[in-house]
Amino acid sequence: MSARDAIFDILFEPVKIGPVTARNRFYQVPHCNGMGDQHPRGMAAMRGVKAEGGWAVVSTEEVSIDHHTDFSPGIEGKLWDAGDIPYHARMVDAVHAHGSLAAIELCQQGIACKNMDSREVPLAPSAQPLIVPSTLQARAMDLSDIRAVRASHRQSALLAKRAGYDIVYVYAGHDLSIAQHFLLSRYNKRSDEYGGSLENRARLLRELIEDTKDAVGDTCAVAVRFAVDELRGADGMEADGEAPEIIAMLAELPDLWDVNISDWDNDSQTARFAEEGYQEGFISFVKTLTTKPVVGVGRYTSPDHMASLIAKGTLDFIGAARPSIADPFLPKKIEEGRLEDIRECIGCNICVSGDMTYSRIRCTQNPTMGEEWRKGWHPERIAKSVSQDSVLIVGGGPAGLECARALGQRGYAVTLAEAGDALGGRILNESRLPGMASYQRVVEHRLAAFNKLPNVETYLASDLSAEQVIAFEARHIVLATGAAWRRDGVGCSRRTALPIAASVPAIFTPDDIFAGKIPGDGPVLVYDDERYIMAGLIAEKLARDGHAVTLMTPETMVSPWSENTLEQHAIQRRILEAGVTIMTARRLVALENGARHACIYTGQEAEIEAAAVVLVTSRLPNDSLWLDLQARAENALAPWQSLTRIGDALAPATVAHAIYAGHRYAREFDTQACEGAPYMRERVTV
Ligand code: ADP
Ligand code: SF4
Question: Which of 157, 317, 350, 428 would suit a FRET pair with 271, their CA atoms being 20 to 30 Å apart?
Answer without folding.
Answer: 317
